[in-house]
Design brief:
7-stranded antiparallel β-sheet; alpha+beta; globular
Length: 205
């Protein structure tokens, strides 16, 4: 199933082509199983369901007309097995290790694909985790702080509640962070590079 509200926002507000629609946040477990994939097993101990291993439904390959398809790191977008955690859950590194015990994540930051505070303000309880280089994760602080300020606004919070989306697809800066592309302090120069990557080759020049 497709969350039409989320898809429309990604296409028309973020300018993200369909083949790059990557779910990164969901309002609840039902939204994950409806729009993202199957919950294979919980990754938390006891009765608390705050982290999950999710197996996504197969997605079409990234259209080769977009230069981003040339980037080896873009493979992370549609990885079939993913870890999703509640925005208030703090033992997410342990949960990730339980999901992928054979994966070496030493030296990597486990990044919430959407800032945790932003997710909470927008009404999304669960967020996808991705391993990220520390320099890329640190570079996203400027855009994340801007997002927190925006979504803390009373009018914006009301608009978030009205929009009706059950999931959210990544915007350009979130896609770039997942690919370990540093955003930089001013964001715009890096975002311009990101825009080039999602512009069809036929339209270049």
């Amino acid at each position: 199933m497709i969350d039409e509200v989320a898809r429309d926002r990604a296409l028309n507000r973020y300018g993200i082509p369909l083949c790059l629609h990557v779910p990164i946040a969901a309002v609840d477990e039902e939204a994950i199983t409806t729009y993202v994939g199957d919950i294979v097993r919980p990754l938390t101990q006891g009765q608390t369901r705050r982290a999950f291993l999710v197996e996504t439904r197969e997605q079409p390959a990234i259209d080769p007309c977009y230069p981003i398809s040339d980037k080896p790191s873009s493979v992370i977008f549609h990885t079939r097995q993913q870890v999703w955690v509640h925005h208030a859950y703090n033992s997410y590194r342990s949960a990730y290790r339980r999901a992928f015990p054979g994966t070496d994540i030493s030296g990597l930051v486990l990044s919430h694909a959407m800032n945790r505070r932003v997710a909470a303000l927008k009404g999304f309880n669960f967020i996808r985790l991705t391993p990220t280089l520390r320099r890329a994760n640190s570079s996203s602080a400027f855009s994340e702080n801007w997002g927190v300020a925006l979504h803390s606004d009373t009018h914006q919070m009301a608009a978030n509640k009205r929009n009706g989306a059950f999931i959210q697809y990544a915007d350009l800066t979130e896609l770039m962070l997942m690919m370990d592309m540093p955003l930089g302090g001013g964001v715009m120069a890096a975002v311009n590079e990101g825009q080039r990557l999602i512009r069809p080759r036929a339209n270049e020049g």
